[in-house]
Design brief:
five-stranded antiparallel beta sheet, 29% strand, alpha+beta, 160 residues
Length: 160
């Protein structure tokens, strides 16, 4: 399976009154993993120790003429997420690349479950590429398609 594994910290403040990671915090964990996987740090950030990953799309950053906007998200919770001091392992892959959008599928796992036998969450985010100035969708470049193709795999199957 072609995928990216990103470990994200689970903070004490992510927990709810039941001692589990709150559903809104789960969305943030997925977002942090997606940004780490696909957004490029600036040269200045790299000098300060930021990690440069081969999956990062150099076309998208905070000042780029192209934006990546979230069109939709779907999450299915399989079991409660306890406080994970070691962080959560977010496994990501790209099941679909469209004209101006692509999907990212996720499994949120424990680090000691790299086979994904007991996922906490399965999720999908649809990302649309938009021109900053005009506010309209922009076709994905061949460069972006080639990079995304390296992480393409079968889509998740969701319940009902």
């Amino acid at each position: 399976m072609a995928h990216l594994d990103i470990t994200v910290p689970v903070r004490w403040t992510d927990l709810d009154a039941y001692g589990h990671v709150n559903n809104a915090a789960v969305v943030r964990l997925l977002e942090e993993a997606r940004i780490a996987a696909f957004w490029s740090p600036s040269d200045e950030q790299i000098e300060r120790g930021a990690v440069r990953r081969p999956s990062q799309l150099d076309l998208f950053d905070a000042t780029s003429p192209l934006l990546t906007l979230i069109a939709s998200q779907r999450l299915e919770y399989h079991r409660p997420i306890e406080y994970l001091r070691e962080g959560a392992l977010v496994r990501m892959w790209v099941p679909r690349v469209g004209g101006a959008s692509f999907d990212v599928d996720y499994r949120l796992l424990r680090a000691d479950d790299p086979d994904g036998a007991y996922p906490y969450v399965s999720a999908r985010t649809t990302i649309v590429v938009v021109e900053r100035e005009q506010g309209r969708a922009s076709r994905l470049s061949d460069e972006v398609r080639v990079l995304l193709d390296q992480y393409t795999d079968e889509p998740l199957e969701f319940r009902g």
